[in-house]
Amino acid sequence: MRPPISPDILPPDDFDLGLVASDIDGTLLLNWKPISTATIDAIHRCQDAEIPFVLVTGRPMRWLAPIAEQIPDLGRVVCLNGAVVYDIASQSVVDAHTIDSQTLAEITAAVRVDHPEARFAYETLNGGFIDREFVTGRPREARIIDDVSELAGEDVVKVLVRLETSDSQAMHDLIDPLVDGTCHASFSEPDNGLVELAPFGITKAKTLSDLCDHLGVARAQVMAFGDMPNDIEMLSWAGHGVAMGNALGSVKAIAAAVTDEVDDDGVARYLDAVLDTRPN
Fold first, then answer.
1. pLDDT for the residue numbered 138
2. In which domain, by residue range, is 92 found?
3. Where are the alpha helices (DSSP H) in 100-246?
4. How would you list the strands of the sheet with 92-96, edge to edge?
5. Do 121 and 193 reside in the same domain of the chain?
């Protein structure tokens, strides 16, 4: 039996939990496995206490179907690193931040000047598009294009970049200066060789903040869970940011607390410990 969560890493006694925000991959589940029963029970425990549980993910909307099957009563989800707010129950887009055609052309041109080997993929409100030589594990889910101009008229909400390396941090360090001021660069896996570009000024934290304003929840009342650099702004913004035990060191360094790894139900164990301390 695992030891209980140490009281030393729980929020202070005066923390008034008003909303839980959580990343999905590497936080609620790993490698596309189903969410554990313990985690689903903890989510429902929050909902029963009238504490909203909000998913905040880099996933596009079409990758949320397995989550909806397991937890159909979730409400709004922040997708694509903050670019889209999606209602999982009605399967509809509530709000979206897009990258216009001119900016899109500037981004791809700026990267290709220094890295002509760069290949791009594009998430839109109408599905995914990829360069002909872009390597992806889900090619049947995307339409192939030969030039970025073919995306005219599409609502582009995220751009993914590949170079000739699998080191995502190294890629980010190369690409971020090239797109500074036109979009926000991050990555969500350390070794998949992908850098993710969101519309300028858009992060998980920014869109979560707007959603909390809509729900009437103060920043100080938000508890957030995450594991990768695209979660850093969210964990830093939240009243209490919690890194997973499997999180990268850069994420743990900015978090208020570190819970167990995802395979050890880190979110569920931490939430249960917090909820156990709440007055009835």
1. 66
2. 7-97+203-277
3. 101-114, 168-179, 204-215, 232-237
4. 76-79, 84-87, 92-96
5. yes
199, 227, 252 - which closes a domain: 199
d(CA 112, CA 243): 35
Query: How many structural domains is the chain composed of?
Result: 2
- Return the pLDDT at 278: 81
Task: Please name which of 220, 237, 215, 236 lies closest in space to residue 75, comparing C-alpha atoms.
Answer: 215
Give the number of other CB atoms < 10 A from CB of residue 160.
21
Q: At 18, which amino acid appears?
A: G
Q: For 26-80, what is each residue's pLDDT tens digit?
A: 999 998 899 999 999 999 999 999 999 999 999 999 999 999 999 998 999 999 9
pLDDT band with cut points at 50, 70 and 90 for residue 135: confident
pLDDT at 254: 98
pLDDT of residue 7: 85
**Edge-to-edge, what's the strand order for the sheet holding 119-124?**
142-145, 127-131, 119-124, 156-162, 195-199, 183-186
d(CA 156, CA 168): 22
50 plus 12 within the same structural domain: yes
For residues 227-237, one letter each, b for 16 or more C-beta atoms within 10 angstroms of the residue's C-beta and e for the rest, the string is bbbbbbbbbeb
